[in-house]
Request: fold
Amino acid sequence: MRATFRWARADLRGRRGQALLTIGVVAGVVAALILATMLLEGAVNPWKGLFARTHGADMMAYLSYERTSGAPVSTAPLAHLPDVVRMAAPHPFSPATIDTSTGEPRIQLTAMPAKLSSLSMSVPLVVAGTWLTAAKPAGIVIEASFASSIGVGVGQPVTVQSADGKPVRLTVVGLADSTDQGFYPQATPGQVWVQQSVLKRVEPSKSEWEEVVDFRLANASAIASSQVFQAIYDAYPTSTGASVVQRFTTAQQVEDSMASDDRLLGLLLGLFGIIALVAAPCAIANVTAGRLLMHRQDLAMLKALGFTPGQVVRMLLAEQTGLGVVGALLGVALARVITSPQFIHPPDGTTIGLAPFPGSWVALIAAGTVLTVALATAIPAWWAGRVSPVAAVQASPPRGHLSQIARLGLLVHLPAALVLGARDSLSRRLPSLLTVFGLAIPLMMITVALSCWTTIDGFSGDPARIGLPAALVVPVPASGMTSHQLKALLGRVGTPYPDANLPPTPLPGDNGTFTALAVGTSRGQGRYPFQVVQGNPYDAPDQAVAGQGFLSLMHLSVGDLTLISVDGVNVTVKITGRILDADYNGDVLAFGMDTLGTYGGPQPPGAYDVVLRPGLSPAAARADLLRWTNNQLVVSMVANPADSLGIVRVVIAISVVVLAVIGLASLLTATAIGLRDHRHETGVLAALGLTPRQVIATLVVNTTILTAIGVSLGVFLGLAVAPRLINMQGQNSGMGAGIATVPSSLMLAAIFVVSLLVTTLAAVLMARRTMRMTDSAAHLRSPARRPTRTSIS
Amino acid sequence: MSRSASNSLPTTDLLKTRGLVKEYHSDGVSVEAVRGVDIGVGIGEFVAIMGPSGSGKSTLLHVLGGLERASRGEIWLRGQRVDKLSLAEWAVLRRKHVGFVFQFFNLLSNMTVADNVELPALLAGVTPRQARRRREELLSDLGLSEKAAASPARLSGGEQQRVALARALANEPSLLLADEPTGNLDSSNTRDVLRLLQRTHDRGQAILLVTHDARVASMADRVINLFDGMVADDHPVTRIPRPVSSVLELHGL
Reply:
């Protein structure tokens, strides 16, 4: 035990760089795993993180002020209700509106103290700018999702006004997140916080004020909450039936409102889990195996001294696992720092939800990674346990020889460094395999990650690719304009397609609904440009196309006939193709408007879907249409699901950085092993007449060739795997297979070139250092550090 | 011969082999590096093994120290049959009873001189304090006290071999196996190392030394000549009692 400890201590001291590399890789993997999980979990369920960070209330009761006296209602009777653990001081608020360029949305103007620390519950989380300060009485803090929706940022002036009051000009000092209600615009009105003096200026009549009281409950379940509702109602008896209790909100309701049903995000979580699970052990195994390769002679000597094979295995396992533990702790600390509010700044007020991570999960990730380190060490350690003690002392007979190709290369006067370097990279099998796979795996993962990025990019850049060709939807107004006039008007910005605007249609058997899209014509020029990825577009009134979700729900496939009841009309159509659909999770069946007409169904369009002219932005087209019609039209822009995938890009970026570090670790290990193996050879090569530059070039060529093979293999595997993985996700999310876009050849070429440049640079620097440290004669005098294979004849 | 009979082979030798064979397999061809060797080393005896390159000297030494497994034959150490021991059992045996010195020193490169010498003692279960005391004695004996904290890479070849010797002697093994310990040294360092070997021999520890050099072999009590993996000759050395140094000087070393 003491001997083991003594050796491990000396080993760690002697190989600090490699030990730090292992720690760095483990720390990076742990931090990235925690961060990615928190981000994705936060994106899927943002409420959880916000609730913890804002100390959200379990229940909120909204009480009106006394209508006659304008005095606040006493909340004293509520403090001691059963099941109420704590009640926060009430905050007065008043309804108002805020003036924006696109309208005057309703807001809830809540008076808050200038010191957030005085709050015990529902503490808004400032994500940009500052909180209210006494020094800036005219300051206003706006809830982040609302600010983003109305396009207001920190420092901008805004005007708020109550129903009967005068407009009051205020300046936005900060943006904050809150769990008082869901995100805007799903939850309204917009949330805005001011100091009480401002509330008085906006709404001088206190009888219009209300107050919100936050509760922490002993049991936040629906049943317990409803009992507390009742108790609160009962606390304010009223003879007229007009209770001061206006309404309640529970944390559960807010959570439901915030929850994202974007299954794609959840699936991405799984994808990155897989990336980490595959890449981390490979990287660790590679670094460990590399270390052991370099140790080979020392390990053999330890065995000659009397270390048993079991002792060697245990010693290496303990040493590497120890490094893994240090790395995991460092990774947890790193993740903690990165996820602190100082580091995670949501850009322009976009909500970035960071799910709170229970300690047990963090411990699980850390322990899992340490276990991975131990498992990844097990095989190289077992191999080390089997190293013959003779390896310490015996120089194996020279095995290297020049292949016919190498001989030919020298014969035609190819540079000697190139021939010798190439020969070397192909003749040292184990180190070469370690290098190639050590690089191929992270590169494969990087290619997969970049394919995800490109796919999302494709969604944003070309929405038609995911079945969103129309950027605007304009319902036919009830009066003032006929559908023909509207169509003519819309023709100025693009191509309008009439849409029957059908309500959700029940599935046969009444087990859910799907969306029937009757749009455009069933053939000819007026056919809507669906993105058909399997089969063909419809070309007759009795034909239709469907999304993956619909096909799965109905157990149908392309080519099948289906009978459905749309808007009271029974329609039989043949499904001629599968389309990509991003709007309805793929639960969609689409056909021409005339299909319904054939069956006597609705003929006049309810709305127009407008495919814009190339180059025209949806916002500009919308503004034009509103201007031409004096805001008489309702023009809505089609939401692109890719816009909500911004967080995925952050996760991809993190993954790519970690994978690049892993690749770099493999690369440095490979270079170090290569150089160590060649210390003796460098002398021989110099003695043969190679100049120092040629010797360095030989070493560099060797590493560069292996890198080129590893990177090519990785990119090739990545390109083979990525479309399958992404399409699988698309299929599971209902959008449908066929969404994958692989990175451009330019990007792949850039990856290749950058990898080679980094390798060459690392190899040149390390080789020059090695050459400087020892002169060639010394190489020849000193014993070979490992079996030499220097024979080149 | 039955196994039980074989286990009770009476011997006064520290080390004894019977029909020892070491076979290598390469590219489907088997080559016998050691071919039926019968040798014995008495307690406290100094035996030199000589022979041309490729005669199987080093292989024989490795097999006798358990670094490699014998293909056939018997090895007896301290009255115990050891050729059937597992690798782990061999390792435990080496800790206490067999010391190794190699031509290329093979010091652990990432450990200091002190750690290199203390490691075998710690491995044998000695307390750190005892290990340190033993190391101080050995290094002082070998004139290396001041180099205790140095890295092996900073020592000269002779100094490295002296440290390797100190390491081999840390547990006072009854048998020291030395594979060309002077093969990589200049004359002055050769002299120092031989003097140390002589002192070890004088303390009653047996030495089995492989060498090319007849002058080095002349220090031994007995010389075994190997040729093509077989014992060609085994004879005692007759010499006029003279200090080693003068022998070496006489030969111009």
Observations:
- The interface with chain B takes residues 2-3, 6-7, 10-11, 13-15, 297-298, 301-311, 388-390, 392-394, 783-784 of chain A (CB under 8 Å).
- The first strand of chain A starts at residue 59 and ends at 64.
- DSSP finds 21 helices and 22 strands in chain A.
